[in-house]
Each structure stands twice: as C-alpha cells, then as structure tokens.
C-alpha cells in the first residue's frame, strides 16, 4: 500500500516536465491522479503511464488561463472521484526576453499563465476543500520569484506573485484545515530548458 492510497490529486501542466514527474510520483505513492494541460494527446500518454502503475487517472484538456475550463476540471474530478485532496498548481512557462523587448501582449500572457492560472486553480479547489473541511494546495513557483532572473522579468514577477498568493491563502484558509504551500525550484532539466539552450550542461 502507498502512503497516499485513496487520495485524489490534480496536477496542472501535468503532460511534461516537472508536472509529469509530479504526477507519476503521486501515482507511485498510491494516489489517483488527474492530469491537466492544453494538449490532450500529450495528457493521454501520461495517463497511460499512470494507469500502468495501477492507479486511476483522468486526463482533462485545460487552459489554466480560462476560468470556465479550470472550474470544469475541478468539477469533473469531484464528479468522478467524489473528492479532491490535493491540488498542484504547476502549469507555467517562462519566455526568455530582455525587459525592453517585452510587449504588453507577452507580459499579459506570462502573468496570466504563471500567476492568474494559480489563482484560478486555487479558487476552484478551495471551494471544494472548504466544503470538505480539509485539503492541500501546492503551488509551484521558482527561485526566479525570489532572486530575480536576467532576461525573465515578467516570469520573475509572476512567480513572486505566486509566493505571496500562497502566503495569503495559507493564512486565510488554515481555519478550514487547508494547507497551502509553495515550492520554488531552480532551473530543472526539462525539454523546454533544453530547447532554450541558455545554460551549459555542467550547470544543470
């Protein structure tokens, strides 16, 4: 038996990179998993891996920038499993751009994906967890939100916002037995980082 047998977890951005690793780790620990991302075909591949571990998995195409899609993701989860124990707001992506080259469109996109998406996921999950009188929300930030990152100003601002959002929700929802925490990883060797080619292999 796994330490998370019977638990239900949602991971946004769960089709690749850090999110995929989180999803598989939860499944290995015994949880049933919902993976959400925009591309259904990528989600289906991860879902197959999770089911091969003997766990149940839903793969729900979701754009975390769109409130209705986030609400639907949580609703489908609760309709299917009857509960939601853990919400991992992982979806996000940086776009390496020097400050004076950032357009308003790019600024809004990066903040919507990396910060508003965490807000929407937390609100949708929080409503369910308050009714359940328990739950855990884990938001994935970045060291870029703590120390800044050259050429990633909008991403750094968004991730700093995730950290403060987490602190506020932790204080607000503790009375409902909801734990809200944040993890701030540094550069991680994902496919996106490889494509950027911005760091030498020895750094990673």
Commentary on this structure:
It is a single chain. This protein has a single domain, classed as Rossmann fold. Helix content is 49%, strand content 16%. The model has no long low-confidence stretch (mean pLDDT 93). The chain is built from seven helices and six strands. 40% of the residues are buried. With 204 residues, the chain is an alpha/beta fold. The protein has a six-stranded parallel sheet with strand order 3-2-1-4-5-6, with helices on both faces.
Uncertain stretches? none
- Count of individual beta strands: 6
Order of helices and strands: EHEHEHEHEHHEH
Overall outline: globular
What layout of secondary structure does this protein have?
Elements: E1 8-12, H1 17-28, E2 32-37, H2 40-52, E3 57-61, H3 67-81, E4 86-89, H4 104-132, E5 135-140, H5 144-147, H6 153-173, E6 178-183, H7 191-196
Parallel strand pairs: 1-2, 1-4, 2-3, 4-5, 5-6
Helix pairs in contact: 1-2, 3-4, 4-6
Family: Belongs to the short-chain dehydrogenases/reductases (SDR) family.
GO molecular function: oxidoreductase activity, acting on the CH-OH group of donors, NAD or NADP as acceptor
Pfam families: adh_short (PF00106)
